[in-house]
Structures are given as structure tokens and as C-alpha cells.
Amino acid sequence: MDSKPSAPAAPRRSSGWTLGHIAGAPVIVTPSWFVAAAVLTLVFGPWVLRQIPDLGAVAYLVAATFVIMLFASVFLHEVAHALMARARGHEVHELAITLWGGHTAYSGGLTRPLDGVLVAIVGPLTNIALAGGFWLAFLARADGGLDIPALLLGAGAFSNAFVGVFNLLPGLPLDGGQILEAVVWRLTGSRSTGTIAAGWAGRLIAVAVVLWALADAVVLPLVNGTPLDLNTVLFSALVAVFIWAGASTAIAGGRRRDAISALRAGDLADPVVTVPLGSTVAAALAARPPAGPGGTSPRVVVVGHADVPLAVLDDDAAGSVPPDARETTGVDAVAVPFVPRSAVGPDVSGQDLLRHLATSSGGARLVPVVEAGRVTGVLDLARVAMAVRGS
């Protein structure tokens, strides 16, 4: 159960059934939830029967009710994330209920450590508040003995307290990890440093979960001569794998963010030569010098008044013009116009560069790089994409 800040572009939506919308985002139940619900019902059924032996097969119906209550609490946990993210100015993309509980995906760019703290902490606090409410109701109900309502209320109090406290552990992908990430970010000024530190803390938590399970369910029973609790070992191992995988993804993401921050528009841009609007195809081709050592030639950019970049020569279209017609064919006939206001400065880098291209390129592949009112290069979005994938 975690909140996931994503890149400026909307992430791929989880597959499943949309139940409605909250904070402008779809609430999705994934197919894996049904697997989790069935497994948990089978796991909790015998436990319910041990608490109230007279129930018989009804114990599994009670267990199923508890599982629904548990996932309802998880849903409220995710709603808290979504509402806080929306309140802090982020776009919420989805609330998903999954095999591992759920997640909330939002974007808009985390630019302030405080946002990470607030969005993360409200989820566990919601569960802790629910635990308090269930516990008070349990105390009021338990006066009449342990019946089904009292059992469900007690289980609801314990499960919500566990979910709330466990999610506050300081390691990604848990909510407490996002809080640790924000604290380190605030202290060091680097979000990537915070992400990597919180990811390693998450790996330590995963190891600690396994060691605790082995000590509690294997070592102590061997010492005391009691049966081994292999179910606890298996469940703890699954939780540890989930945490380790999420932590590893976070570490990789932090390193990738560092690499992306080094991407600079001026470094990725192709060099250019310019020709004024009204030039012929022959003049445009003549203005371009031969290919350099790298085997690439500068791009030809058509400029208007005050050297405003208007379009870039389409080499294939220009090459298809017959040689005897190039002196009479205007360059604008074989040039691709730039999207208005798509120009980017050569020093724009990292997430700011990706955000600008996502919001201003208008789907065009090429955008001009302009410095001090003069076009200095042409940025190919395919090259940017390759650099991002390779980072």
C-alpha cells in the first residue's frame, strides 16, 4: 500500500474493473485482488473457527467478511493518499486495489519534500484512526462475550493498527520510505539521494522481516520443542520479496533520475544552418556544409523576421525535388513547420526538459533550440527518448 509519484506523463493504467472515480481518477479493482481475497479467506477461516468453534463452515463466511473489511480499509488508505495529492496540486491517475493491497499513482512532479511527507503519511494515519474506531466499538461489543460482530471489530482494530504501523516503517516502497526520502531530500537537496537512501532502507526492512520470521517461527519452536509455523515463514517471505523488489525499483529509479538530470537540450541537439524564408531549395541545400567526422550534416532551419525559427528542411522531400526545379521551388514547400512556442533553451535539462517536451511539442518530433533569440540547434525527440531509455 503506497503512493507512487510518477513522471510528468500519465503512467500506464492498471488493468481491471473501474468502480468509479475519486479525486478525478478511476478506482480500479485488479484481477489479482480476487486471488488475494480467496487466499486470505482460506487462511483466516481456520483462525475464525479456533476463536468460535461452533461456527463450522460459517467461519469461512466470517473470514470473507473480514477480508472485505480489510480491503475497504486499504481503499480508504488509498483515498487519503489521493485526496492529499490532489490538495497539493498533483494530478491523480488511479487508485488501484491489487494483490498486495493497493496503490495511488499521481504526477505533477514532486518539487517539494513536504508534499512527499504529507501525501505519504495520511494513508497510515487513516488506518490508525480506523483501528481506534474499531477498538472502541470492540470494547463496547465485547461486554456481551465474543460473538461474530465482536470478533470482526477486534480483527479490524488489529489489522488496521498493523497496516498503519507497518506502512510507517522507513523504507521504500512503504509510505514511511517516502517520508524518509523526503527528509533526506530536504537535508541534502537531492531527491535522488533521498530515493536511493530510502530504497536501501527498504532492503534492510525486507531482510529484517525474513530474519524475524525465521526466529519466531523456526528457531524458537525448535528451542521450545513446539511445531514450526511454516505459514508465517511463507507469508513473511512473500512480504519480504515484495518490499525488496519495490526497494530495488526505487534505487534504480533514483539512479535513473540522476542520469536524466544530466540530459541537456543543447548537448542533445543537432547543429543547424539557417536560410531566410523565401529561399529556394537549391539555396537551402547549398547552405549546408558537407557531413562532419560523425557522418551527420547540420539541419537546415528556415527563419523569418528577427531570425525566428519557422521550419526545418525535410531532407527526403528536398532530395525528391528534380535538380532542374530546385532553383524555382521555395524551401517552405519541403520544410516541416515547428510547433508554435515549442522552442527550448539549450540549458534546459532533466525533468524540466522532459516536462517541456511533453507539454509544448504538440506531438512534433523536432523542436528548435533557441538561445538569446537565435536558433542554435534542433532537438530530435527520438534522440531524447533514446537517452532516457539508456539512462
Features:
2 domains; alpha/beta; CBS-domain; five-stranded mixed sheet
Give a verbal description of the structure.
With 391 residues, the protein is of the alpha/beta class. The chain has 2 domains: 2-261, no CATH class; 265-389, Roll (CBS-domain). It contains 12 helices and 11 strands. The chain has helices at 31-51, 58-87, 113-141, 148-167, 175-188, 191-224, 230-261, 265-268, 281-287, 315-319, 350-360, 381-389; strands at residues 2-5, 17-22, 25-29, 91-98, 101-107, 272-276, 299-303, 309-313, 335-337, 366-371, 374-380. The chain has a 5-stranded mixed sheet. Strands 6-7-8-9 form a 4-stranded mixed sheet. Helix 5 packs across helix 6 (191-224). The chain is elongated. The model is unreliable at 6-10 (pLDDT under 50).
A few lines on this structure:
By secondary structure, the chain is α/β, with parallel strands linked by helices. It is built from twelve helices and eleven strands.
Largest sheet, if any? Answer: 5 strands, mixed
Percentage beta strand: 15-25%
Which of globular, elongated, flat, extended, rod-shaped describes the shape? elongated
Identify the strand order in the major beta sheet: 1-5-4-3-2
Number of strands: 11
**Distance from first to last alpha carbon:** 28 Å
Number of helices in the DSSP assignment: 12
Domain tally: 2
Structural class: alpha/beta
**H-E order:** EEEHHEEHHHHHHEHEEHEHEEH
Oligomer: single chain
Helix content: 55-70%
Arithmetic mean pLDDT: 90
Unreliable runs: 6-10
SSE map:
Elements: E1 2-5, E2 17-22, E3 25-29, H1 31-51, H2 58-87, E4 91-98, E5 101-107, H3 113-141, H4 148-167, H5 175-188, H6 191-224, H7 230-261, H8 265-268, E6 272-276, H9 281-287, E7 299-303, E8 309-313, H10 315-319, E9 335-337, H11 350-360, E10 366-371, E11 374-380, H12 381-389
Parallel strand pairs: 1-5, 3-4, 6-7
Antiparallel strand pairs: 2-3, 4-5, 7-8, 8-9, 10-11
Helix pairs in contact: 1-2, 2-3, 2-4, 3-4, 3-5, 5-6, 6-7
Main location: membrane
GO biological process, one term: proteolysis
Organism: Myceligenerans salitolerans
